[in-house]
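ESCALATION

Customer reports they have been waiting on this structure for their group meeting. Please prioritize. Original submission:
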Amino acid sequence: MRTQDFYLFVEGIVITISGLYLLYEAIKKALYNETSSYLDISIYVMIISLVITISLVIYLNSVAKKTNSMVIKADALHYKTDVLSNLAVLCSLILVHFTSIEIFDVIIGVIIAFYIIYSAFSIIKKGVLVLLDASIDDDLVLKIEDILKNDPNLSNFHLLKTREAANKTFVEAHIVFNTQQITLIEAHKICDHIEDSIKLIDKNRNWIVNIHLDPYDDYLKDEM
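Update from on-call: job pushed to the front of the queue and completed.
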């Protein structure tokens, strides 16, 4: 799991470097007044590359939606930045071809470079948070809390913990029943209902729910 999480972080760094390199090339072209060459051939090559990359992005997004894998999402973003880069290059080549104004290439390159760097930041942030065992999004935590608070069989709950690793979402909680006169079968049914309710929050996530059963409130004991 940690290998995939680290890969996610590295993927973000690689995308950032790609953006910085594109920015460097754009600035260098502006400073040294470099001109574009082989425009006709370059335009055809970029069109073919663009079609192939777009197809790959569509496929990866489809797989990522089904698996909720952050690694695949990172790959999809990586290729999405390639699409934007190729599209920018294609647009600039066409503009330069018809106008002979080289500054178009520089301006578009700078814009796309900053977009790539900005997009990569979210991937890096996600990778760091996962590596640090950070909690899942606050809105998801609130929905889990609502499920526990609104269950008529519970008096309260404590030690709710959440985290993400690779494509799995882990949830742990201690629940306190509102009666000590409860059978194991009844307790098991209640836990199954809570677990199913949590999984319905987001069906695309691979939920791993672990619930600890308490016949009475032992919050202070569990905290020690």
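Sent to customer with the following note: The first strand starts at residue 154 and ends at 165.
Escalation resolved.
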